[in-house]
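> @MW can you paste both from yesterday?
MW: sure, first one:
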Amino acid sequence: MNKIVFLLGLWVLLCTGRTFAQESPIEVNPDQACSNEVFVVVENPPTYKGGLEQLAKDLNDRLRFDKKVKESFLIRTLINCEGQLFLLGPFDPVGSSPLSQTSMALYELQHWQAGIQRTKTVDCYVNLWCKIKKGKIFIN
């Protein structure tokens, strides 16, 4: 029954064209966002030029992890309406953890296309699930 209610609600949401936007629950520097409305879901979400496989390749070209490292983590970002990536999650910018290293390498890769909602570029939250296995990083 719950599954049917969920699917019905999802269908209504998709058919009405409503979107999810919210006031930023995370303190976002006004210089980072183009507006005070940051989208969670949009018609065309932000994309890395070349897709997530290219992003993983670019990160693997920059980073080297020991083959024994096996770790998963979430990197929270804001991609603004100009396609600039800003890191939101807690991490140590000078740390040596895989999270810190990956976050800083990701910040250097500014090859994003902004999200689009109703033909207008918008600010969007993007969560990147990262997994390190056998010395390589994978992005979901």
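MW: second:
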Amino acid sequence: MSFFANSSMAEPLDLKGVEPTTPVVAAPVVADPAAAPAPAPAPPPAAADAAQSDFAVTVPENVAALRKDNFFDPDKTFAQDIGMESVEVPPEQLQAANTELRRLAGDVGLSSGEARDIAGLMKAAAVELPTDEQQSAWRAEATANLSRTYGSRANEALVLAQKLVQRDGRLLALIDAHELGNHPKVIALLAAKAFDEQKKGRL
């Protein structure tokens, strides 16, 4: 079980760019062919385009509000650190998705090096997810690290880290999709950034 398992969040994101599918509806059974209804007209181009916009980026309102005073260029700051590749997602939407991933890193307050470390963990998990034994070892190490770093405030640090994740459900979705919710580096980083965000009055 992840440290964030009890959080009420969105479903994990699929970062592999799976093509959106259209539900298959069975044709109605008609006894008299002459009485069969005329086929539905093809959707107009605008509707067809909308059906293919499943990869569009949607930013939660509370997150958009936090970004009003943040003028950094995510593509410039994290261009070498964060980025997905896909042959299935349209290029312009892939670019928008990568920009949003970089903005997520900025929202949390990651440095370029920290973003690169997290991206590396996610890439490794995309190849092979951690085993139950690894999860248990990670959780024990993360707990020990919090106690060593924050002492009597260890539980507060974890609660703040959970609040930081809850601020944008997409962040937990990314963590859950890669099963990194117990990783000691992830927990330590989120706890530190959560205290920073609290000091800024953003958490």
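> thanks! The radius of gyration is 21 Å.
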